[in-house]
Amino acid sequence: MPRFQSLIQTIKRFYIIKTTNKPMMKYSIKVWLFTVTISPLLLFLTLGLTANSAQWNEILDSWLILSIMMVYGLVLSIPAILIFWLIQRKLTTTLNDNKVKLILSLYSFISVWITFYIFDKGFVERGFQQMLWVIVYSITTVIGVWLFKLQKLEKNEA
Q: N or C: which end of the chain has fewer CB within 10 A?
């Protein structure tokens, strides 16, 4: 049990919870969770209703597939969100919010395309329906970047 508690304390210290209540990864986590939950929902609605002519109840009955997509997205995007956080952490001390969000938007858009390419190199050749996945995830991430309030770090915290 002491090992488990030690692990929890290490995770708390590294990621989110600080005794001084610093913002740390809150903004990045909000953008990340927004992307991995909203993107699959938008894909299901778009592909289900338009491309596959599915009925509304058929889409709702696909909650298991939707859940798997969300978990898969969470896992595959861990490296990208850690880099996102590092960029955000460094830039918030030197640039204004709009410039930071513009750079994060550009990075997010590119990182989604790179992540999809790494895990499915042939998605571009398979047509628009496959490209729609990347487009939806990219746009959703950029929306998340601009939707949430960016927390500032002090210069000595970066």
A: N
- The dihedral over CA atoms of 23, 24, 28, 29, expressed in degrees to the nearest 10, equals -90
| Cβ atoms of 43 and 136 closer than 8 Å | yes
**Cβ atoms 108, 139 nearer than 8 A:** no
14's tokens: 């590294």
Tokens of residue 97, six digits: 């919010």
Kindly give the residue spans of alpha helices, DSSP state H, lying in the chain: 2-14, 26-46, 56-60, 63-76, 78-91, 97-119, 128-147
| Ramachandran angles phi, psi of 88, nearest 5° | -60, -45
pLDDT (tens digit, 9 = 90+) per residue, 6-31?
A: 655 655 555 444 444 455 689 999 99
For residue 100, the Cα-to-chain-centroid distance in whole angstroms is: 16
